[in-house]
Amino acid sequence: MIERYTRPRMGGLWRDASKYSIWLEVEICACEGWARIGRIPQAAAARIRKNARFDLKRIARLEEKTRHDVAAFVTEVGRSLGKDAGYFHFGLTSSDVLDPALAVQLSRAGAILLDDFKPLLSLLRRLARKYRQTPIAGRTHGVFAEPTALGLKFALWYSEMQRAKRRLATALETVAVGKLSGAVGNYAHVDPRVERYVCRKLGLKPALVSTQVVQRDRHAELVAAMALCGSSIEKMAVEIRHLHRTEVGEISEGFSPGQRGSSAMPHKKNPIRCEQMSGLARLLRSYSAVAMENIPLWHERDISHSSAERVILPDGTILLDYMLATFTEILANLRIDPWRMKENLKRFGGALYSQRLLLVLAEKIGSREKAYNAVQPLALRAAENGEDLANLAGADPQIGGHLSAGEITACFDDSIYFKHVDKIIERVLADDGY
Question: Engineering a disulfide at 178: which of 100, 119, 236, 329 sits with its beta carbon 3.0 to 4.6 angstroms away?
């Protein structure tokens, strides 16, 4: 299922053909950088740019022998260069190729992810405005609290996804760094001018200082930003899952013709895609932990991070790409039932309006404590037995003796809960994310 959303746009970026093509560009740019400072002939650099090529199958066969992917790649490309092969990979160590290339891949993957936010944010904007005056029961601790607006829920999600986008954009800048500084980062066999040239050509910044590798706190920041985004998607999916429940029934996932919710129970319509978001968010969070573990490397470098990155970076970007696209589809196909929301608000005898009744009464009698003690037993009675709180209040001497029937009725008017909603939503939607 995931491949349907990621191939070839995201998944193709991590295929061997794409990876080796970026490696080749790094190597060619390095040759050009050497030529610019007169270390190798300009003509040789031009011929390398023109003639350098590779065969994936031959690289695979060479790697079986060398047990070293970069060595196999350099040998294979050298076959196409003739006498110019001696200039290829000149002065470089493997990570002088791997890390700039990885930064390019992550930058390209990040551009796809940032693009994924556009339809999601646009949809959340529309939902926030469309449902800004739609009443829904607010819930705290999973229990009815007070009426609120459904549009506020979508506005909240919009704001959170704007933060996710900002965090991701910042982390992508952090990771868009390259190094061509040699085996221990001291430029013993490569000129810093070559590094500057290569990074500029690739759209990267040179690391101010490195060991054999770019430091992995940068990559951990990116994976953490992706994990946070996944957790926010899960948060929204969990809310939909709750509202989808049979006894709530206010919002549910779309259910397509021919779809089956259960092999055994024909009546079932399960929130399977939102549940999937929860499962994938757990996986993304685990990748963040691995990325943190990749930060402490021995001395100037070991390769304990390498094997893990070959999983968490491709899979993490693919997972988040899938989650963003899928959650956008979930939102686009939501079934929203305003009638059920109103019916739920009427349940429990209007107990959701108890705070308004409390405040009006407190203002009349001059004691919030006395007002609370008067309203609470009636509110609990209404919630537990379904009796009408307004009627109970009117018949109660502690309340009805101080408030008129009109004053009590006004406490159950929804408008009080919506007087600032439009301003909140427009304030949120004015945030363009940067």
Answer: 100
Residue from 141, 267, 299, 307 carrying the catalytic annotation: 141
Phi-psi region of 349 (alpha: psi -120 to 50; beta: other; left: phi over 0): left
Q: Are 168 and 116 in contact (CB under 8 A)?
A: no
Is 68 one of the catalytic residues?
no
Convert the pLDDT of each residue in 247-278 to its tens digit.
998 998 877 777 776 667 777 678 889 999 99
The owner of tokens 């305003």 is 338
Q: What's the count of helices (H) and strands (E) in the chain, helices before strands?
A: 18, 6
Pairwise CA distance, residues 373 & 392, whole Å: 14
**Do strands 205-206 and 143-149 pair parallel, antiparallel, or not at all (unpaired)?**
unpaired
- pLDDT tens across 280-318, in order? 999 999 999 999 999 999 999 999 999 999 999 999 999
Domain count, the chain: 2
Q: List phi, psi (to 5°) of 335.
A: -105, 110
Global confidence as pTM: 0.92
What range defines the domain where residue 193 resides? 92-252+265-336
**28 closest CA partner among 53, 59, 58:** 53
Residue 433: what pLDDT? 54
Q: Do residues 327 and 348 both lie within one domain?
A: no
Backbone angles phi, psi at 251, to 5 degrees: -135, 140
Q: Which CATH number belongs to the domain containing residue 409 in this structure?
A: 1.10.40.30
Distances (CA, A) of 3 to 69, 126, 332: 26, 29, 21
Domain boundary among 336, 358, 393: 336
Q: Are residues 100 and 149 in the same domain?
A: yes
Q: Residues 21, 122, 262, 367: which is the catalytic one?
A: 262
The DSSP 8-state label assigned to residue 181 in this structure reads: -
353 shares a domain with 326: no
- 415 in the same domain as 288: no
Which one of 298, 314, 336 terminates a domain?
336
Across 120-128, average pLDDT: 96
C-alpha dist (Å) from residue 300 to 199, 209, 214, 250, 303:
21, 12, 10, 57, 11
Q: Is 262 a catalytic residue?
A: yes
**Whole-number pLDDT of residue 3:** 40
